[in-house]
Specification:
Layout lengths: L8 E9 L4 E3 H4 L7 H8 L3 E3 L7 H16 L8 E5 L10 H8 L6 E5 L5 H14 L5 E9 L9 H4 L4 E10 L6 E9 L7 E2 L11 H5 L6 E2 L1 H22 L9 E4 L4 H11 L10 H4 L6 H11 L8 E8 L3 E8 L2
Parallel strand pairs: 4-5, 4-6, 11-12
Antiparallel strand pairs: 1-7, 2-3, 6-7, 8-13, 9-10, 12-13
Helix pairs in contact: 3-4, 8-9
The structure holds oxa(dethia)-CoA.
The site of oxa(dethia)-CoA has 19 residues, from helix 2, helix 6 and helix 8.
Length: 333
């Protein structure tokens, strides 16, 4: 919900980082019982990037964050808030945001992680924007980062071919009017069926033991068919709700950046919203599903390639484990 009496919040700059190591579907097929044809026709993915052994969620986040600050023309000492969205933190604690604070040479500012899986960046954007609107913070660095390869089960072909690694970031600060920048945000959750998409081991319910490791409980598990159906429903609804909140209709959108999970999901949403596919920005074929990093990586590409321009009405929409979902409606400035 937007706050009309409070200042607008503007995305001042974007940045992204994806690892150098490109893994094509044909490379996956050398070790997994799959094929380029199956993966591409079922998902739209051709290749993904897997991080090197010495790359982590915080190292990727730091590069993306530095690039976003450079694009925004903001110096590290000006940042007074860092929020990192990730389900693959460098370690359970301390937070990845603290590691980023140090790596970027930021002041001893407020830094914390949030966990909302693939919706994480949209949650972080909402939280960060509203923290700025209070006046308590001036310039925020909002990052989505994932090393999904660290939790993939490479003996499970139904999941390991879908995900990739990377990070995306934005710098936020307040603007003047109320009709520019982030016009509205929404987020939601339904925790009634966490097993649909989860990493069952490693938490307080199932701490790491020899048994949990043997049971491969520390890897991502997913009921793809169910998630697919829910994803289409919640992303359509979130899109409609946020447009309605701000008095817009789908045909007024210039660009939609959806969570990059499956091209068939994106096509279904396009058809339900009656928005042509050329309004959707997609880079799924190149990166696969990078979870919390997928929307900010795509946003950075769309901005740098001038697919998104000043004055455009832009919708970011995503869903993820939890279940969680989120949307952000932006007048690009
Ligand atoms: O960020 C949120 C993340 N999650 C998602 O967005 C996932 C949403 N779901 C999906 O994208 C799709 O459900 C999948 C791509 C995961 C699966 O597509 P599907 O059309 O639902 O396939 P399926 O699970 O029904 O499997 C069809 C067949 C099965 O073989 P049988 O039982 O028909 O003989 C699978 O064993 O495809 C087989 N299969 C594969 N074959 C080759 C599953 N994975 C693979 C694979 N390569 N990688």
């Amino acid at each position: 919900m937007s706050l009309p009496n409070l200042p607008s919040v503007i995305i001042r700059g974007t940045g992204a980082y994806t690892p150098e190591n490109v893994v094509h579907n044909n490379d996956m097929a050398k070790t997994v019982d799959t094929s380029d044809e199956w993966i591409f026709t079922r998902t739209g993915i051709r290749e993904r990037r897997f991080a090197a052994a010495d790359e982590t969620s915080s190292t990727m986040a730091s590069i993306a964050g530095r690039r976003a600050m450079e694009a925004a023309g903001v110096h590290p000492e000006e940042i007074d808030l860092v929020i990192v969205a990730t389900i693959t933190p460098d370690m359970p604690f301390p937070s990845t945001a603290c590691l980023v604070q140090h790596a970027l040479g930021l002041k001893p500012i407020t830094a914390f992680d949030i966990e909302a899986a693939c919706s994480g960046f949209l949650y972080a954007l909402r939280i960060g924007a509203n923290m700025l609107r209070t006046g308590d913070f001036k310039k925020a660095l909002i990052i989505g980062t994932e090393k999904m390869s660290s939790i993939l089960d490479f003996s499970d072909r139904s999941t390991c071919v879908l995900f990739g690694d990377g990070a995306g970031a934005v710098v936020l600060s307040c603007g003047e009017g109320s009709d520019e920048g982030i016009l509205g945000t929404l987020s939601g959750s339904d925790g009634s069926n966490p097993a649909l998409l989860c990493q069952p081991g490693g938490g307080s319910r199932q701490p790491a033991t020899a048994t949990s490791i043997h049971a491969r409980a520390h890897f991502l598990k997913m009921n793809g068919k169910e998630i697919f159906k829910v994803a289409v429903r919640v992303m359509e609804q979130a899109s409609r709700d946020i447009l309605k909140q701000r008095g817009f209709s789908p045909d007024q959108l210039d660009c939609i950046i959806p969570h990059q999970a499956n091209m068939r999901i994106i096509e279904s949403i396009a058809s339900r919203l009656k928005v042509p596919m050329d309004k959707f920005y997609n880079n799924l074929s190149t990166y696969g599903n990078t979870s919390a990093a997928s929307i900010p990586i795509a946003l950075d590409e769309a901005v740098r390639s001038r697919r998104v321009n000043k004055g455009d009405l832009l919708l970011l929409v995503g869903f993820g484990a939890g279940l969680t979902w989120g949307a952000s409606l932006i007048k690009w400035s």
